[in-house]
Amino acid sequence: MRISEYIIGPESSILEAMKQIDRNAKGIVYLCEQGKLAGVLTDGDVRRYLLQGGDLRNPVREIANRSPKYIMQEERNRGRVYMKQYQIRSLPVLDADHVIKEILFLDEPSIEDKEQLNLPVAIMAGGKGTRLYPYTQILPKPLIPIGEKTITEHIMDRFTAYGCLHFDMIVNYKKNFIKSYFLENETPRDVSFIEEEEFLGTGGGLRLLRGRYASTFFMSNCDVLVEADYAKMYHFHKEQKNLATMVCAKKHLTIPYGTVEVSRQGYARQLKEKPEFSFITNTGLYLLEPEFLEEIPDHTFIHITDVIQACIDQGKRIGVYSIPEDQWMDMGQMDELERMKRSLHIRE
Prior knowledge:
alpha/beta; CBS-domain; Spore Coat Polysaccharide Biosynthesis Protein SpsA, Chain A; seven-stranded mixed sheet; three-stranded mixed sheet; 19 strands; 25% helix; elongated
């Protein structure tokens, strides 16, 4: 959802408002003055105005409701209850400055159905994305579009649904592209940027966040989407008292060929027709405790998987939260990028 599809200026004509309502197909637009909520207009308001012989050239402020219902961000989990109470179909979510941050709709699944975790999220967005050449020779991987949104926005949307609103992005390659995109985005998000001076890997880059977190946080690669229950992940992590929890997918592969096991002497030992394999694979999504950052060496190129292995070798608690294969999508390679688009029902 693009908030701009539901916003109109108070001096816009009623005809322009009608066109906006038709485009968004939700029967409503919100008036904003200097970015702040100032009114609401529904298709019913327009119909009544026309039946009274109103002029479509008049400004929309003349017929808008200048006392619209709204809800603040900290109460957004009560949005559905609020809409039912006041018998309204949509509800803008405002920040402290009364700027619309999101619009909830009664006829759509809403975030208040999910437990609100309020955990920070670290997104590793500094790599070159060489597996996605030639796309990433032009755009950094975090800004690769999946439909009308970037992959990073899709990731953020899934965390936002669980009340995880603050994001720390580790940036390096084409960092100015990434920073400009989010700083100028029409859907404002609470994003901080931590710059790598050199490529440090997913572990070394994470080390830059030391001292920023006082409690559990999520860490995600910038090319994966996980459609599982993030609240259940969190409770598993805390109940197990893990230093780190890896979200892993159960994979099942069928080799489309007959395989041959060969002895050292060159004799056939065993034939298997289209063998099947099941295994657990790392999705690139983690729950981490702040103490985990202390396990990462300073100014060192290292991947988070190497840090986790070192923790395992030391006997520290590293958990595995398993999800079905179809709840994980990885955009890291071209064929997987296309599969992600199909899974999200995105057409070019």
